Each structure stands twice: as C-alpha cells, then as structure tokens.
Amino acid sequence: MIGAPMFLVSGPNLVIEQCKTGIVGAFPALNARENEGEPVELDRWLDQIRLALNKHDAANPDKPTAPYAVNLIAHRSNPRLMRDVDILVKHRAPVWITSLGARPEINEAAHSVGAVVLHDVIDDRFARKAIEKGADGLIAVAAGAGGHAGTLSPFALVQEIRRWFDGPLFLSGAIARGDSLLAALAMGADGGYVGSAFIATMEALADPAYKRMICASHAMDIVYTDYFTGIRGNYLRPSITASGLDPDNLDRLQFDEISPAEKPKSWRDIWGSGQGVGAVSDIVSCSQLVDRFAREFSDARARLHADISRIG
Known about the structure:
Blueprint: E1 2-3, H1 12-21, E2 24-28, H2 41-59, E3 68-73, H3 81-91, E4 95-99, H4 104-112, E5 116-121, H5 124-132, E6 137-141, H6 154-162, E7 169-172, H7 178-187, E8 191-194, H8 196-199, H9 208-216, E9 222-225, E10 233-236, H10 237-242, H11 252-257, H12 286-311
Parallel strand pairs: 1-2, 1-8, 2-3, 3-4, 4-5, 5-6, 6-7, 7-8
Antiparallel strand pairs: 9-10
C-alpha cells in the first residue's frame, strides 16, 4: 500500500509513521511551503524523514521501514519543479510520484540516483505515454478517487493497462478498507493507493474540522466538479456549502467572476475526498489505521478462501 500524497495534508510526521508501519508514505513537494529568505523547507523535511527512518531501522533491524515517496507536479506552471528535482537528487529520494505531465528529464534525474518513478494516470492513453517517456510504474486513478480523479471504473482501467504493461501498478479510487485492497490485487494491481482515510489521522496536517467532516461523510457527500480548479475532482459537499456555495448549482463562469478576496480556495477551504470516505468514522493514529487495513485484508482473504473451498 502507498499512502497517497495529499496537498496541505501530508507532511513529515504522517510520512514517517506510514513508513514505520511498512507502507510507502508520500507527500507533495509543494506541501513544504516556503517564504522568501527562509531556508529551503523541502530540504528540512527530507532531512527530518531520513533521520527518523534511519533511527527506527537501527532500533528495529527485524522490522525496517518502507521507503518514502515525494510527489512532483510536473506541469510547466510549477515554478519550483526543477529546483525540487535537484533537491530530490541531492537527498536520493527513493520513490518519485509524478503528476500532470510525463517528463523524460524528470525520469532521467530520478534514475540517476537509483530512484523509482511512478506516474499517475486516468486512462490507458496517458499510461502508455508515461511508460514511453521513462516512468517505471503507474498509479491508475479511477473513478471515486480523492482530488483530481478520473471517471473510469477501476475494473476497466486496470484491465486495459494490464493488457500490455506488467510493471508496477497501483490502484487509486475509494480504497478505504483492507478488503478493497485485496480486491485491487485480485484485479491485477500490485497494491492500493490510499488517501482519504489518512486525512482523519492524528499525524495529518489537515484542519481538525476537515478530519471531523471526513468522519461524518459518506459517498453521497462527494461532489465531482471542475468548478474550483478547471480540472475535475472530488470534493466534500459540506465544505462547499460552508463556503457559501450551492453544490448542486455550481457555475464555472460565475466562479471566475468572484473577486480573489472572496473566492474560496481549493484544498484550503474546499476540501477533497474520495468516495470511500464512508469507511472512516473515527480520528485515529496512522498505526491504528494501518492495523485496521491489515485486519480487514486478512479477514477478507480468509472469507474468500472459505467461499472458494465451499464452491469447489
């Protein structure tokens, strides 16, 4: 399992705890916010993560940590992109997750330090382009995923990619329980990419009200719209309402006309979530959440084996 990198939610503490449990912890490079004249925050975050994981591994040689990952927005509108690439090279970050653009030069930089690159895609066409440009693996972002999600069924998306690609493939889309993780493996993915469930953890950077809203929400509370960023994504209906907007009557043109001072901001005011949110009912520690996934995964596998035995 990979803990999905979430804007303004994933930080060093969450990543460290995820890696300690044995799953890949990830954060967006842009979460390391910086003010002019201050030390580079991304440098500090990577030092903090490396030191914490090394300390844990030294004390627990029989239970080493999983590698961490850093997400890069590869779109050319990201002014920090190539500088952040240089920082990841410097720290020899082990896993790079790229979004919004497959870039050969980024893949080459990662490979120069032995890193693995996973690129997130919403359809087979983008998947093929990512591998052609040098990505090592893919994250299939299916319908129901949090944030900027695709519209394809996970069954269809994994099926089409697996026709030609046998490399690392992780599935994103409403995976909020261990049995969903088992289902992803059954479909042909190598693992799940889990985000929304980690918002309601003690280590997440999310606003406490955001965490409580995650716990109180269900699949029907998710609104899929391009209203806020121009790219379709999944958001929590109550956060839209709290910003004074009608989630059932969103108009992109009207939103563009709202003054910058009055316009609610995506991720800060309008909160993202996937459709699997109904599986989350309590704010817990990261380790407690991963333990729940492990129990559910084990129980689901036992049920499956029992059913197969009964049928066969």
